[in-house]
Amino acid sequence: LVFYNTERAGNYDGVDWLPRSQFVPIITSLEHDVLVSWDDPHAFRYCDRAKAHVLAFQLNDTYVTVFDQIIDRYFHPSQWHADRYLGLYPEISKAKQRARMTNGIDPIRYTQDVIRDKYRVVYSSSPDRGLHHLLAMWPTVKQQVPAASLHVFYDKDKWLATVKQLKEAGYYVNTAEVASKVEQGIKAVEGLNVEFHGGVGQ
């Protein structure tokens, strides 16, 4: 069972996709083996019927606190991610860490013929995962390879607005410094063949 607000709930390839509003009623009444929460420790607030609890991390920060008492395993996309979390969040039990639970891919995508542009650079991740470094080095790239073009696929404006909103509300935002560098980098690459396409589907 996957609880997610899809356009059309139903069974697809043996997976039941259900709206999030059904999460609490079902997990508290249906016997199940494992409850996996994706980046949300609060999923374990309820008296669920799972035999094991897993928190799968994807983001660069979290809040676990007392939820560690009920969580049996933590999954990370890489060993680096797991090690970083252990340094940032000492309340997370080291023995429960499991690295290398990566995102899935569809191998069919790699069987298609794609016309490659050797001068095109694509950035398609969250800006706080290195966009500021790429923007800082882009003038040097253009100097070395004048035909190079950079295409950024992410809703950077929404991300920057969220960081600003949280800061103005008085919250500590661990990506605030990176957001400032991204904004400076965007200005620095004007006229250097950089396109920001916004958020697009895979």
What does this structure look like?
The chain has 202 residues and is an alpha/beta fold. It has helices at residues 23-27, 79-88, 131-144, 156-168, 176-188, and strands spanning 2-3, 10-12, 15-18, 32-38, 50-56, 73-75, 97-98, 120-123, 149-152, 194-196. Strand 2 and strand 3 (15-18) form a beta hairpin. Helix 3 packs parallel to helix 5 (176-188).
Give the gist of this structure.
The protein is an alpha/beta fold and 202 residues long. 27% of the residues lie in helices and 19% in strands.
Alpha-beta content class: alpha/beta
Biggest pleated-sheet summary = 4 strands, parallel
- Pick out the low-confidence regions: none
Measure the end-to-end span: 23 Å
Share in β-strands: 15-25%
Kindly report the average pLDDT value: 91
What overall geometry do the principal axes of the alpha carbons give? Answer: globular
Run of helices and strands: EEEHEEEHEEHEHHE
Helix share, percent: 25-40%
Number of strands: 10
What kind of oligomer do you see? single chain
The Rg value, from CA coordinates, equals 21 Å
Count of helical regions: 5
Within the largest sheet, what's the order of strands?
4-5-6-7
